[in-house]
Amino acid sequence: MNSVAERMIELVDWPSYRVATGPAATLGGALHGLLSSGNVDEASAAWSDIEEHVFSQGTIYSAAEPTVSVMLAALIEDQPSWRSGRILDLLFYIVRGFSATDSSLQGRCRDRAREGLWLLVRWALTHEGWARDNALEVIEVIDPDRVEFIRSAVVEH
Questions:
Q1: If DSSP codes are grouped into helix, strand and coil, which group holds residue 7?
Q2: What local confidence, expressed as pLDDT, does residue 131 receive?
Q3: What is the DSSP letter of 12?
Q4: Cα–Cα distance between 105 and 107 in angstroms, integer?
Q5: The domain containing residue 95 runs over which residues?
Q6: What is the largest CA-CA distance in the chain?
Q7: Residue 154: its pLDDT value, please?
Q8: Angle in degrees, 0-180, between the axes of helices 81-96 and 129-142, rounded to the nearest 10
């Protein structure tokens, strides 16, 4: 795991945030597990502590907001496919989600993701297949006005 993402996990007061089941006290550990996973099984085990917690059936919880920043930090370094797929999926589920209790949470999560727009574009430019497509799906949600311009730049690349 890269030191930036690791440090970001450490800096978040996770228990002050919420997930579907209550305080997000264990989420930092789950994100660390995902970002340090050495194989598909380890990534899947960590994912089980993230899925249905940070997001559940289209609903996001307050812990989604710092999670966006951690996932973007993880993408500053190349990732094996078992990790990058989960990272981009998590970003997608968060930016597509809504909150039943905080009407501004979706917008704040999208704003945070937009801060990493050019990092996501770089990811799309330097990867192929589903890795590129997953990055473009996130971009489509967070910056629909520029997605066609970005898609054309990726195709030309």
A1: helix
A2: 87
A3: S
A4: 5
A5: 3-113
A6: 46
A7: 87
A8: 20
Give the DSSP letter of residue 153.
H
Mean pLDDT by 10 residues, the chain (157 residues): 90 98 97 96 95 96 98 93 93 97 97 97 92 94 95 88
- 156 Cβ contact partners less than 8 Å away, ≥ 6 residues apart: none
Structural domain includes residue 27: yes
For position 155, what pLDDT does the model report?
Answer: 86
Distance CA 154, CA 124 (A): 7
**C-alpha separations of 3 from 28, 40, 43, 88, 105 in Å:** 14, 21, 18, 19, 27
Give strand pairing partners of 56. Answer: 59
The whole-model pTM stands at: 0.95
Residue 123 in any domain: the answer is no
Total domains, the chain: 1
> 15 in a domain, yes or no?
yes
**What span, in angstroms and rounded, lies between the C-alpha atoms of 37 and 85?**
12
Question: Would you give the distance in Å from CA 56 to the centre of its chain?
Answer: 14
Q: Domain for residue 12, yes or no?
A: yes
Q: Which residue has the tokens 């489509």?
A: 140
